[in-house]
Amino acid sequence: MKKVLKAIAMLFVVAAVVFATGCGGKTGNMGNGAKENETQGNNDQLQPVNPEISANVTNNTTEANETIEKGQVVTKADSGKTISLKKGENFTISLREDPSAGYLWKLNLSSGLSILDDEYIEGLNPEHLEGVPGTHLWVIEATAPGSQKVNGIYKRTWENITGTEEKFTLNVEVE
Q1: Of 77, 116, 78, 121, whose CA–CA distance to 99 is shortest?
Q2: Using one digit for the tens of pLDDT, what is the confidence trace for 70-104?
Q3: For position 81, which CATH number holds?
Q4: Which of 1, 23, 89, 135 is most solvent-facing, going by the fewest CB within 10 Å?
Q5: CA separation for the pair 86, 1 (Å, rounded)
């Protein structure tokens, strides 16, 4: 009888290890309906980051191992400021986001800017909790000279705009 109990206990341990290995360490994108007009990224190559710290961002439109030049990183603290770029240069916008609570950033870019990559990176989660906020990264290229603008609003997609939402604005002067 003791051998049978030991065998059952070993099976439980093996099953727990296999389950933990399959579930652990995953970061990722939200479901297909969570973001409007935004591409889903491949987060297998990304590590969780602090919004103030840069990360390797993989371009979804190129080969898996090719990375995009990110340029300068712009955060929420830079809202309302102006940056200068040359045509063809890139920059990255890095904003905290909590998609598990329904809060997402919706960006609108003027016609002289183009999103090259769009990634959500789940925040550090050592206790493997559900619903941990993370960082949303957009790599943006300056495609036309002149005064360009990025406007963002942070809200639940199903709620109406009330005017109390968090906003992000960036002016981009392109040579």
Answers
A1: 121
A2: 889 999 999 999 999 999 999 999 999 999 999 99
A3: 2.60.40.2020
A4: 1
A5: 76
